[in-house]
Each structure stands twice: as structure tokens, then as C-alpha cells.
Design brief:
Blueprint (H helix, E strand, L loop, with lengths): L12 H5 L16 E8 L2 E12 L2 E5 H8 L2 E5 L4 E6 L4 E6 L4 E4 L2 E4 L5 E3 L4 E4 H7 L2 E6 L4 E6 L12 H5 L11 E3 L11 E11 L7 E11 L2 E9 L5 E11 L13 E8 L11 E8 L11 E7 L5 E6 L2 E6 L6 E8 L3 E10 L5 E10 L9 E10 L22 E10 L5 E9 L7 E12 L2 E10 L4 E11 L2 E11 L16 E16 L2 E14 L4 E13 L2 E13 L6 E14 L3 E12 L3 E12 L4 E10 L6 E10 L3 E11 L3 E14 L6 E4 L8 E8 L18 E3 L5 E3 L5 E4 L8 E6 L8 E2 L4 E4 L6 E10 L1 E11 L2 E4 L4 E6 L4 E5 L5 E7 L2 E7 L1 H7 L1 E3 L4 E4 L4 E2 L3 E7 L1
Parallel strand pairs: 1-12, 13-51, 45-52, 53-61, 53-62
Antiparallel strand pairs: 1-2, 2-3, 3-10, 4-5, 5-6, 6-7, 7-8, 9-10, 11-12, 14-15, 14-43, 15-16, 16-17, 17-18, 18-19, 19-26, 20-23, 21-22, 21-24, 24-25, 26-27, 27-28, 28-29, 29-30, 30-31, 31-32, 32-33, 33-34, 34-35, 35-36, 36-37, 37-38, 38-39, 39-40, 40-41, 41-42, 42-43, 43-44, 45-48, 46-47, ...
Length: 891
């Protein structure tokens, strides 16, 4: 039985979705407000140099850097302007999202105030009040001692793993300016050598085949100026049974894919877009185009979620922090959650994957569900053409674990469009040619309107097909007595087949369908909330059959446990035969006990048609060192076989692969199994040539090959006469350190497939004096399996002391608070501000000639200029330059 859970957002989420977040005017990250403070956690010194900003809107603290110091599970997503993660042993969810203006911690939704959250170039800064919501700490700044004092309200991971402090400190860099990001352009190429993720498994077992072996292979790279993604998987006899391939080009600005503003173009094994009535999203071989923003989703009520699922992985779906569903068996190497119900307002979707070697990854998406309205004049279109449920590469004679629906192999063409007519009215339409019942293709047209009536989001859609089928659907979403409510009712005629309803994919014609979703919260005490969700559907088919389905869900943290529970109800009433009822339940527990044991347990049971237990399972993972882990699994079935299962695994994480030995035994059948699994990546190194083995994940995300060198001529390119620089430290995936070798090369993998990837660097271990590298954060656009080549030029650095004076009578006096700029021959500008005595220090200057300027706005405002042009030179070897004196005059 699949796991099935749902949780609502708190009452008021709809209002939150409509809030326009207003950022404070001016630049809150003013270098004049920068402070380097000592951080103390419960009398434990964490660092002596955390960069914070004592700005006029309050103290601004870098979340990413502080989280690394505390070993907290908070991830800064600069491209999405979002902070996500988990806190505590129960892994309570944390999301702060600037575009929607919300912060959600442990199911409690609140508004972001203006100035609470400031996005810098290499971190996100938050005020103290928001930091205390995101982390279980109290924070106080002692301005006299320049000390940030933290008091933990509950145990933090760093207090259990102090030995990681020294390693984490190495990548802090002592703080950096907010514009210290080294952006590298990385466009798709005609062709690149692909990267591979390989998982091979072999063993022996009691049941046939006696010596099973299987594999999963994923590939990624550039092909035809697009990103290629491929997959092939085998059965237990090593025969390939499923494969897929995709060419995809993404462009967040919508400028590189033609004049129509396409943001995504795909060819190969794609998914067609869904219409509000009739045709649902379906896989097939074909092409798809979209103008929808890559980082924005606005839908009404339901969404389909899909992604990669390697062998041995379990994936869980959390909606607004509560377990909704789960999948443990991949289909064509993927997971798929269809028709996931959402509530109006901001929905936090978390997809958590647990690997067979103790891995835990989390994908967080923020979906703002309103009435589907667009901005006035905005036009969004989606087009898909595919041979439904057929892959580019097929193995028709073998079982590929795919359950196909009606109309397999028929062509499906779907086009949806929406146009923002006014601020409150959006027009929508669609066309489709699809085969929902396997009885031949039919043409379909839809038209609709999205608006708001008395504060209630309203969608009205109509559809007609060429066979005389008709459909009319009305959906309303709002809040009633602090209960988020969604009601949808559809009427059908003429044998219309609607695949978009949860049970409409079997090709049967419908007469009517109704759906009710209710989400609310109970608050037994202050600060503690239990979210509830209720869903009921009723479908009546054209032949007279009726079906009811319902669920009730609740979830909450209890101590160090995260507890989810709920019930599923289904009633089937066919026109021929008697009605049948089924009522089942499930309880799920999870914990990160003492920040050492990752525990998961679940029990399911049945209440109707009879009372009985279903199954009980327990999985415990623990790291027993930096590279070794163990897993213990227990299972008990209460069905006819009363089967008991014990699983023991030993995992070794090598520098280039993951190796695991698994043993499993079941009674009373005395069924046993031994297995050896090896997972690794093969990445082509464009700098050194050839393939290098790496930890898994390189083919499904971007990578970077970095060449560090002494840039003697300042052209930013690695020339033969220039020396490579070893010892540059980078933060790889999972927090591991990667250091450039004797040739100045480093390969960083597993950087994800988001809109932006970042790599932090540090020169602390470089055995050179008076040198400076590019900004400490490297940023580029990742593509699956593609290795971006990044030149990392390091030059000698120099410094110069400038003194600005003004004549007062017959003497010169220093002039403070003058904003200066040193500009070299390439137009690169460095800024400084004079102190009380008129002095300003420019450091980390590259060799070359510089001219001194006064900031233009300040000079114009104060009618101030330099008395005469001033220039200076930093020598080729760097180091201090002679002091410079300059005089200003006021006109």
C-alpha cells in the first residue's frame, strides 16, 4: 500500500499569496556598516570573523555562513531568493521565500516584513528577529565587544559534531563584500563528452534467478547546443528493459530560444502539458515548448510531480510539511506523483529521497496557487506533441515495469494558452488531439476564465470534442471560518472522457464529478499547531457506476519525532453488483535522533471490511565515521504469510564511489539474499583529458573544472608561460573539500540542475604572498552532466594608502567620509572611504595603473573635486605602493 498524506497551510495562506513584498529602498548592505564579529554559542567560540551589517534597518546576519558554522541544515538558494532546510531531530521544515513574502517554520506561516530578508550576491542576510524563527536560537549583539551571542533553545548539530568546525572554518574567507561573485558564462555547446552515473548490483538469493545482477546508467552532456539526458535500466538478468532520452534547452530570460520568448524547449521523451478539462499531462516521445517562467508556478488545485529515482531509493512527498505520498519502485528510472492536491495560497512542496547507503536529499518547491491570473498583457503558452506512452528507445518484448493506459502509441497534441486581460481577469484556452479510451483519437477544444468574485478565486471552464462530448467545470477557492476550502464540480455529456480528474485515466466516460478539499489547524497550546486536511471526491460514470474516495490527514512534531497519521476511504458502487467499502490507516514516524541516527518507522492497518494489521517497518541509518555507515532494517507482515524480514548493510564511501554490502533474511520461508552494490560517476575532465571516477550524481547535475593559475599578463586566460596554483580550496557537494592539485586543477561535481550553481573558494592554503584571486564565489548556469570550464586567475596584489586633504587657511587637514574609487585601465573599480584623518586604504589591487576618482554622486552633491588628477601604479610583484596625497577643492 502506498503512503498517502496531506497537510494544509495555516489559515490565512491565501492572503499571504496576495501580499506584495516591498524591499527597503537604498542598499542595506553598505560596506560602511560592515562589522566582523565574534560568534559565541553557549560560551563556545564558533568564529572570530563573521561579517554582519549594522544597517539602519537592523542587524543583518548571513544565513548561509552562519548555518555552515553551526552545521545547521539550512540551504541558501540565491537564484530563487529562498532559504530552505530542516531543524531539530524531527527535521521540522524551514522555508523563507522572498518572492512570495512568507516564512514557514514547522507548519506555522507568517509574513516577511520589509527588510527582514536581504539577498546579497553570495549569501542571504536576515534580521535577528527572522534568524530566531529560522533557527532554535536566541541572538544578541554586544556592540562594545563586537560579539554575537547565541543561546540554543534546543540541541544544535554543531554541539554533537564539534570536530567538523576546523574544516568548515576553512571556507569562510573572513567575510567578503556583497558583490564578490565571479560570474562565468556557460552556454550549451555543439557537443561535449557526456558524464555518467552508474549503479551496478550483483548477488545471490534463494528465489530465482539465483544470481541476479542489474544496472542503472544515467548520462548527461551537451549535444546540438542543448542539454542531453539519457537513462537505461536492466532487469535482474542484466537485460535492458527501459530507456529514455531527452534534449532540453532552458533560458530563464526567454531570449535565446527565438523571438516568441520560449523559456524551455524539449525533444525526446517529454511530458505533454495538461488542459483544465479532457487531456492530462502524459509521457511520450515528441517535442514540447513553453513560455512559462522557469521558477514560477501558478495553478489551481492539483499538480503533477516527477523526477529521477535511482535503484534502491525511497522518495517521500511532503506538502506543507506533512507526508502526502511515497514511492519506492522506480518506473523508467523516475518517480511520479500525479494529481497532488494543493490549497489556495502558498504551498511548500518537499520531495525527500532516502538512498540505500544512508543518503538523504531534499528538493523544495514553492507553489503559489491562486486563481490562475496573469499580469495584464502577460501571455503564457505550452505546446506538446508526443506519441503517448512510447519512448524513443523501446524494448517491447520485455517487462519494463510500466503500466500503460488506453491509447498507447497514439499521437497526442496539446496546446494551452493564457492571457492576462486585466488585473483580475485572465482568459484561458486549449486545443488537444488525444486518445483517452483507446478507441481512436478525438479533437478537443477548451475555453475558460480565471477571476475573483467577492474574494473567492473562481475558474470556469468549458470543453467540447468532435464526438459530441461536452464538459463544464466550476472551481471555487477561498476561506470560510479559518478553513481553506476548494470546491470543484464538473458536468459531462455525450460520452466525454476527462483524464484530469484523479480517477479519470481509465478511459471511461463520465456524467459528473465533484471534489471538496478542506484544510485547517487545531492549536492545543500556544506555539503548537496540528494541521488537518480532508478531501472527498465523488465520480459518476456514464454507465451508472459510482465511486467515492476520501482521506483525512494530520501531522505534527512530538518531541524529537515527526508523526504523521491518516485514513483512506473508498466506496465502489457499480450498477451491476453490490457496493464495497474500504477504510485503511497509516502511522509514520521519523527522527534524526541525537543528530546521529536517521530513523524511520511506519505501520499500516485496515478497518474495513475487517479489522487487521497490515505491515510494520523500521529503518535506522548511522554514520560511524567520515566514510563508513551502517543500516539496520526490520519488517513484519501481518497478512497471510506473517513474514518477518531483517536487513543489515555496511556502506563504505570511497573518494570515487559508494560501495555497500547488503544481507537480507525472511522467515518463515527462509528466503535469503546477499548483494553487493557499487555506485559511481564517470566525468570527462576537459582540462586533463580522459574520464575520472567520482561520487554518484555527476550526470544528473552540473559540474565545474577549475584551473587556478598566476595570471602574469592579466588577460584572464591560462597561458603556457604562467604557473598553476595548487592549494585553492573549494566546497563541493555534501560539504566535502576539493583542493587544486599541482597543476592547479580541480573538478567539482554534484552541483545540481537549478537555475544557478555556486562554488565557494578560499586562498587560505595557497603558499603565496601578496596575491589575490577572483571573487570567492564562482557562479554559473549548470546543465545535467556538463562540465563548465572556469579559469581562476590569481594575480599579485598590492595596496596603497591614500590621504585626502582640504586647505583650511594656510594648512592642510584630513577630510573624512570621502567616497573614493580606484579605476584601472580595464575599467575595474575598487572603492574605499576615508577615515577621520582623511586616510583610506586600497588593498587587494591587481598590478597596473590606476586613476583616483571621487564617487560621482558625492562629488556632485557636495560640489567637490580633486584639485588635480591623481594616479598611481601597483608593480608586477604586488606589495605596498608609495603613499599618495591628494587635495580636494569645493566649488
Amino acid at each position: 500500500m502506498a503512503l498517502s498524506f496531506l497537510v494544509p497551510a495555516p489559515a490565512g495562506a491565501e492572503r499571504t499569496a496576495m501580499v506584495d513584498y516591498i524591499e527597503p529602498t537604498g542598499d542595506p548592505l553598505d560596506e560602511n556598516d560592515l562589522l566582523l564579529v565574534e560568534v559565541v554559542l553557549d560560551r563556545l567560540n564558533i568564529t572570530d570573523s563573521l561579517p554582519v551589517y549594522a544597517s539602519p534597518i537592523g542587524l543583518l546576519i548571513p544565513v548561509g555562513e552562519l548555518s555552515r558554522l553551526l552545521d545547521a541544515d539550512l540551504n541558501v538558494q540565491l537564484g530563487e531568493k529562498r532559504i530552505v532546510g530542516t531543524i531539530g531531530e524531527a527535521r521540522r521544515s524551514v522555508v523563507a521565500d522572498l518572492p512570495t513574502g512568507i516564512v514557514r517554520v514547522d507548519g506555522n506561516l507568517q509574513l516577511l516584513l520589509a527588510g527582514d530578508m536581504i539577498v546579497g550576491a553570495n549569501d542571504i542576510y536576515v534580521r535577528t528577529s527572522l534568524l530566531e524563527k529560522l533557527l532554535p536560537i536566541r541572538a544578541r549583539l554586544d556592540p562594545a565587544a563586537l560579539r554575537l551571542e547565541l543561546v540554543a533553545r534546543e540541541p544544535l548539530p554543531i554541539q554533537s559534531r564539534l570536530d567538523r568546525l576546523s574544516r568548515l572554518r576553512g571556507l569562510q574567507g573572513g567575510g567578503s563584500a556583497p558583490n564578490d561573485v565571479y560570474r562565468v558564462k556557460s552556454d550549451p555547446a555543439l557537443v561535449t563528452m557526456p558524464s555518467f552515473d552508474v549503479l551496478v548490483e550483483a548477488g545471490a538469493q534463494e528465489r530465482p534467478p539465483p544470481y541476479p545482477y542489474r544496472y542503472d546508467v544515467r548520462a548527461g552532456g551537451d549535444l546540438l547546443y542543448s542539454n542531453f539526458q539519457g537513462y537505461i535500466g536492466s532487469d535482474q538478468k542484466g537485460r535492458p528493459v527501459t530507456a529514455r532520452m531527452l534534449l532540453e534547452r532552458r533560458d530563464a530570460d526567454g531570449e535565446a530560444l527565438g523571438p516568441l520568448g520560449f523559456t524551455r524547449a524539449s525533444a525526446g521523451d517529454i511530458f505533454t502539458p495538461a488542459l483544465p478539462l479532457g487531456a492530462r499531462s502524459l509521457a511520450g516521445r515528441g517535442i514540447s515548448l513553453s513560455t512559462a517562467p522557469l521558477t514560477q508556478t501558478s495553478i489551481f488545485g492539483r499538480v503533477d510531480l516527477r523526477g529521477e529515482l535511482p535503484l534502491g531509493y525511497d522518495v517521500e512527498l511532503y506538502v506543507n510539511d506533512v507526508l502526502r505520498s511515497g514511492q519506492s519502485t522506480p518506473v523508467q528510472g523516475r518517480y511520479e506523483f500525479r494529481d497532488v492536491p494543493l490549497q489556495r495560497g502558498v504551498n511548500i512542496i518537499r520531495i525527500v529521497a532516502y538512498g540505500p547507503r544512508g543518503e538523504r536529499t531534499e528538493d523544495v518547491r514553492v507553489v503559489n496557487v491562486g486563481g490562475g491570473q496573469l499580469e495584464p498583457g502577460q501571455f503564457v503558452a505550452d505546446l506538446g506533441v508526443a506519441q503517448q506512452e512510447r519512448t524513443v528507445i523501446s524494448f517491447p518484448s520485455r517487462d519494463s515495469n510500466v503500466v500503460a493506459g488506453p491509447g498507447v502509441g497514439d499521437m497526442r497534441v496539446t496546446a494551452s494558452m493564457a492571457y492576462g486581460l486585466t488585473e483580475n481577469v485572465t482568459l484561458a484556452g486549449g486545443l488537444a488531439s488525444y486518445s483517452p479510451s483507446g478507441g481512436g483519437e478525438r479533437l478537443l477544444g477548451t475555453a475558460g476564465i480565471r477571476t475573483s468574485v467577492a474574494g473567492v478565486a473562481t475558474q470556469l471552464d468549458g470543453a467540447v470534442d468532435e464526438r459530441g462530448g461536452t464538459a463544464l467545470a466550476l472551481a471555487l477557492a477561498g476561506e470560510w471560518m479559518r478553513v481553506s476550502t476548494i470546491v470543484r464540480h464538473s458536468e459531462y455529456g455525450g460520452g466525454f472522457v476527462d483524464e484530469t480528474i484523479p480517477r479519470g485515466g481509465d478511459g471511461r466516460a463520465l456524467r459528473r464529478s465533484s471534489e471538496l478539499n478542506l484544510d485547517w489547524q487545531l492549536r492545543p497550546s500556544k506555539g503548537f499547531a496540528i494541521p488537518f486536511s480532508f478531501r472527498m471526491t465523488r465520480d459518476q460514470y456514464a454507465n451508472g457506476d459510482r465511486n467515492w474516495a476520501g482521506l483525512l490527514r494530520a501531522s505534527a512534531p512530538v518531541g524529537g519525532l515527526y508523526v504523521s497519521t491518516g485514513f483512506d476511504f473508498e466506496r465502489t458502487d457499480p450498477i451491476l453488483g453490490g457496493a464495497s467499502n474500504r477504510l485503511s490507516g497509516l502511522i509514520s514516524l521519523s527522527s534524526f535522533a541525537l543528530f546521529q541516527w536517521q530513523l524511520r518507522a511506519a505501520v499500516d492497518y485496515q478497518l474495513l471490511p475487517d479489522l487487521r494489521l497490515g505491515a510494520l517497518s523500521l529503518i535506522a541509518d548511522r554514520d560511524v565515521g567520515e566514510s563508513t555507515a551502517v543500516r539496520i532494517g526490520l519488517g513484519q507482515s501481518f497478512q497471510d504469510s506473517k513474514e518477518s524480514t531483517v536487513q543489515l548493510s555496511a556502506i563504505r564511501r570511497l573518494s570515487f564511489a559508494d560501495l555497500s554490502l547488503d544481507a537480507q533474511y525472511s522467515r518463515p520461508r527462509n528466503d535469503w539474499r546477499l548483494g553487493l552494490q557499487l555506485a559511481f560517476s564517470l566525468v570527462h575532465d576537459p582540462l586533463g583529458g580522459g574520464y575520472l571516477p567520482r561520487r554518484p550524481g555527476a550526470a544528473s547535475g552540473g559540474s565545474a573544472a577549475i584551473q587556478a593559475f598566476l595570471d602574469d599578463n592579466g588577460n584572464g586566460r591560462f597561458d603556457r608561460s604562467e604557473e598553476p596554483v595548487p592549494g585553492v580550496v573549494m566546497a563541493g557537494s555534501g560539504g566535502e573539500e576539493i583542493v587544486t592539485d599541482d597543476k592547479g586543477r580541480a573538478l567539482v561535481t554534484g552541483l545540481g540542475y537549478g537555475t544557478v550553481a555556486q562554488v565557494r573558494t578560499s586562498l587560505d592554503n595557497v603558499q603565496l604572498d601578496n596575491v589575490a584571486g577572483p571573487p570567492p564565489v564562482l557562479e554559473f548556469t549548470p546543465r545535467a552532466g556538463t562540465v563548465a570550464v572556469i579559469a581562476y586567475p590569481i594575480q599579485a596584489k598590492g595596496e596603497v594608502m591614500i590621504t585626502i586633504t582640504v586647505r583650511r587657511g594656510d594648512r592642510k587637514v584630513g577630510l573624512s567620509a570621502v567616497n573614493l574609487r580606484a579605476v584601472n585601465e580595464n575599467g575595474e573599480a575598487y572603492e574605499a572611504r576615508t577615515e577621520f584623518d582623511g586616510s583610506a586604504l586600497f588593498d587587494a589591487l591587481r598590478p597596473g595603473s590606476y586613476r583616483l576618482e571621487i564617487e560621482e554622486d558625492q562629488a556632485r552633491r557636495l560640489n567637490m573635486r580633486l584639485a588635480e588628477p591623481v594616479s598611481f601604479t601597483i608593480g608586477a610583484q604586488g606589495g605596498p605602493a608609495p603613499d599618495v596625497q591628494a587635495m580636494v577643492v569645493f566649488e
